[in-house]
Specification:
Two copies of one chain form a homodimer. Chain A is mainly β. Chain A is built from three helices and 19 strands. Chain A has two domains: 46 residues, FAH (SH3 type barrels, Roll); 210 residues, Fumarylacetoacetate hydrolase, domain 2 (Alpha-Beta Complex), CATH 3.90.850. In chain A, strands 1, 2, 3, 4, 5, 6, 7, 8, 11, 12, 14 and 17 form a twelve-stranded mixed sheet that branches. The first copy, chain A, is globular. Chains A and B meet through strand 7 and helix 3 of A and strand 7 and helix 3 of B.
């Protein structure tokens, strides 16, 4: 099942996508819903961010190749994480499928994409074993962890390198029927494939993260966990279009534009 | 004016505290409200976390003495930050005034308090000058940035050292009429004063942070910014009661208890 959050004149509502049509629901997939029999053509609505998370978790350094490549570029020796440790991103930075990533006027040329699988929590969860960990998941969507690498290296925190407004595209929708081992992530820049990897070849998988996290913290419906990225990105500039496709989930597309003077 | 979020049988509602009585309102201080003429004695209600933030910002290393003392304890040379850089905390960890901080069974003895001023954003804001920065603030409350120092040093992120469930007491209410320069923070452990500092003697003040942050990001109503702490904490154990008082705002009190077996 595919959950789409969209607007069509009024405020955002949820619907179930079947083919090219959305059946609107009252309520939402987290607290309960009823089908309405009101349908919309997918092309007639504006797709919104699929969920505004209560807490926005994000895993860094979770694919060996990505860690090794980035360390080699800096002439450093890579150290692979020996345990799952989650980080955070900020809600202000979220944008939807087809919305524009705005590159600040003082950013350097080192603006990169990171194509990521996103786990969307559907049920309150604490103390889940690894065997039960996936039981709290509603479904999966796609994220682009846009990063300004010069700021990422020079700043003490990720506040502007990764959380500048518009730097966190997420969508287009939430797919509930997913075989993690079958997923393939493909990133295209202006139509050409620039990064490809098996989505589930993570150092620590979704279940390991959820089991470890819920030893100490409660996950809530609507929380999201971005699972990290593999490979490397070319430098992006205004006019570029980045598509992140994860087979079986969908395709997240965003154009990069220059900041207007303010 | 003091905004209290409380429950009294039903779900949380907002009210205005005058003396020992709360006048309940419909709505909230962020999107609009109407007075109801329903009043409650402060002692008859359960005080809730004053706001569930959309984004939970938290400043680290913002008082010179705190940085110098912690570095000296580790035998390291302190480096003071040369610019304001904000970090993040997680909503799962929030608890209210008089709720218990639960120390995980595998935590070390190095569990510490950090008494902090909290700025609560009332209006959407971007590109604020330093002169206008405080115009987006609804008011101020108090936070205790409880930290497990062994995990803080050994982990790559603050996920469990600072964001374990119950590690972020916030409250008791939001005070809108505040003279920042007049504030004094006092922390008491089991009734004895253990830390005292002038609240506004920060390396970078509230206005400087908001002006810098809004160059890159939009602040939204309900966002909170915890402003960092001064001084140092003794090791805390089950049974301890920590009170953080900021003159002119209020007093946040929480007991520390041991985790029950799960």
């Amino acid at each position: 099942m595919r959950w789409v959050r969209f607007s069509n004149g009024n405020g955002p509502v949820y619907g179930i996508l079947e083919g090219d049509h959305i059946e609107e629901v009252s309520g939402d997939p987290f607290t309960g819903f009823e089908r309405s029999r009101r349908t919309h053509a997918l092309g007639d609505v504006k797709i919104e961010v699929p969920v505004i998370p209560r807490t926005f978790y994000c895993v860094g350094r979770n694919y060996a190749a990505h860690i090794l490549e980035r360390a080699a570029k800096r002439g450093e020796t890579a150290i692979l994480p020996d345990r799952p440790e989650v980080g955070y991103r900020a809600v202000n930075a979220l944008i939807a499928h087809e919305e524009n990533v705005v590159i600040p006027s003082d950013a350097t040329e080192k603006v990169h994409y990171e194509g990521e699988l996103v786990a969307v929590i559907g049920k309150k969860a604490k103390h889940l074993s690894e065997a039960d960990a996936l039981s709290c998941i509603l479904g999966y969507t796609i994220g682009n962890d846009v990063s300004e690498r010069t700021w990422q290296r020079s700043d003490r925190t990720f506040w502007r390198s990764k959380n500048t407004d518009t730097f966190k595209p997420m969508g287009p929708w939430i797919e509930t029927d997913v075989d993690l081992d079958a997923l393939q992530t493909t990133v295209r820049l202006n139509g050409e494939t620039t990064t490809e990897f098996r989505t589930n070849e993570m150092l620590f998988g979704v279940g390991t993260f959820i089991s470890t996290m819920t030893r100490y913290l409660t996950l809530y419906p609507g929380d999201v966990i971005w699972m990290g990225t593999d490979g490397d990105s070319p430098d992006l500039k205004a006019g570029d279009v980045v598509e992140i496709e994860i087979s079986g989930i969908g395709l997240l597309r965003n154009k990069f534009v220059a900041e207007e003077p303010f």
